[in-house]
Specification:
alpha+beta, Alpha-D-Glucose-1,6-Bisphosphate, Chain A, domain 4, 8-stranded antiparallel beta sheet, 8 strands, 22% helix, Carbon monoxide dehydrogenase subunit G, START-like_dom_sf
């Protein structure tokens, strides 16, 4: 299952945005208002929980400065990645799109497609808060 957020313009250079997204602590600022838990574990992973959803641990998988930051599920039970695709617009602005890629059975895919789509859209729209 592949989902894409809208592409959002952020008033930061591609390198600045990359640096912010490379620090997992900054993801707390991107979370939706209905967040129930956010906890950084070590320097490269965090656990978050939304009300009514199970907690998920994300771990930094790959960084390619200044264009790509990839987080992945720390558990093999729900294998997925969340990629931030950063493109430079000017010296002081860039745009970013979040790409969700997961391997789920058809039933699970139908259940989570809506909530995950809304979640990555919220993360992307909140990039301006960084």
């Amino acid at each position: 299952m592949n989902l894409e957020s809208p592409r959002v313009t952020v008033e930061k250079s591609a390198q600045e945005l990359f640096d912010l997204l490379s620090d997992v602590q900054n993801f707390e600022k991107l979370m939706p208002e209905n967040i129930a838990k956010f906890e950084v574990i070590g320097g490269d992973s965090f656990i978050f929980g939304l009300k009514g959803m199970p907690e998920i641990q994300l771990k930094m998988k790959e960084k390619v400065a200044p264009n790509k930051v990839i987080l992945g599920a720390a558990s093999d039970k729900l294998p997925f990645t969340l990629e931030a695709d950063i493109k430079s617009v000017s010296e002081s602005s860039s745009n970013v799109q979040l790409l969700f890629n997961g391997e789920f059975n058809a039933m699970m895919g139908m259940m989570i497609k809506g909530p995950i789509g809304k979640f990555i859209e919220t993360l992307a729209l909140n990039m301006t808060k960084l």
